[in-house]
Amino acid sequence: MTPLWVSLAELREYERRRMSGNFTVADDNEAYDDSILPLLTIAHDLYIYYVPVIICLGTLLNLFITLVLLKTRLRKRFHSHIVAAIAICDIGFLVALLFIWIKDQGIEIYRVPGLCQMVIFMSHFFPFLSFWHMIATCFIIMICPKNHCLTHTCNNVGKARTLVISLSIFTFTIYIYKTWTNGVVSVNGVKFCTILPETEAAMSILNILDMVVLLLLPFFLLIFFQILTVINFILKTVVTKSIGRSYLCRDYFKVIFAYSICFHIFVGPGCISKILVLFRMTHDKTPTYNFKDIIIENFIQYIFYTYFAVKPLVYMIVSRSFRYHFKELISKAKQTINITRTLVANSQSQEQTLL
Fold it and tell me: Full-prediction pTM beyond 0.70?
């Protein structure tokens, strides 16, 4: 059987050796199954072509979201700084993913001292911040008094900055250990940026805790948030016949609720996969996986990556205030361009008059 962390690159190497006649049963206890070749080809092509598209699209869209939120009057709102922080975290994760993708194209970027540790740190630090910023604001809105939301929270930029800075410091503190427990390790001639052999014992426990805090806890907390939201909506619309929230809070509430749905669609499969891993580990301390399990795990990872590119589109579709201020930003940009053209034309005419 094959360990779960074997990459597509190594699976392709298995296939190359098998086709060349150099593959033997001694290479692995599991006979290579020809039925996985189509799945392997699809997974490989998705990684080569789909992942870089996701990286580029997600980075551009998140930059666009951040620009509109922080360069318009939306910057005076609590929610704008939270959503901008989430977008910046998503960019950070996509940059880490870009480094991993470049390495898998045969470029030995891990020769740069410390880059491996930095990539591992970024790939945990930024998703954690992205998920927990969303969860924190979910419950801030839920407990916010309906008649004072606009005054006490949605207009308070200072609270947003405090939340972002505090959560960032906390996350940095709990993930700094990644920089000394990971490094470049060679397995079967293939170099991996992974756990160092001397830290495997400690990391076997820390990885389980990381899995719970990074994925499983947000997964169940967001389910709880969605249930409360549905109950709250039913009570207010059916019983009291009113929504009871300001326009800005309703707009932000819709965005966060849509984000939570996206989380379950794109991150949910990975959470379920991790629950199955934990279930296997309760029965076998060193569970093993066949090639098909590894390929399916890669498909789940691609769905996970998509989450970081889809969220900006969701925000654009759901938020009316964002679309309004985006149009305002475009209008100001056009005015600036027209003024610049007028000034240039006037300066040119003056120069011609002097000549």
Answer: yes
Residue 117: domain span: 8-334
Alpha-carbon distances, residue 341 vs 330, 331, 332, 347, 351 (angstroms): 16, 15, 14, 10, 15
Average pLDDT value for the chain: 80
Q: Take residue 133 and report the two structure tokens written for it.
A: 């910023």
For residue 118, the one-letter residue type is: M
Q: Among 84, 71, 79, which residue's Cα sits nearest to residue 332?
A: 71
Higher pLDDT residue, 39 or 270? 270
Number of domains in the chain: 1
Query: What residues form DSSP beta bridges with 194?
Result: 183
CA atoms within 13 A on the CB side of 187: 18
Q: 300 and 274 in contact (C-beta within 8 Å)?
A: no
Residues 202, 194 contacting (CB under 8 angstroms):
no
Q: Which amino acid is at 326?
A: F
Task: DSSP for 181-242, please give it.
Answer: HEEEEEETTEEEEEE-GGGHHHHHHHHHHHHIIIIIHHHHHHHHHHHHHHHHHHIIIIISS-
Q: Please give the pLDDT value at position 237.
A: 66
341 in a structural domain: no
Amino acid at site 83: V
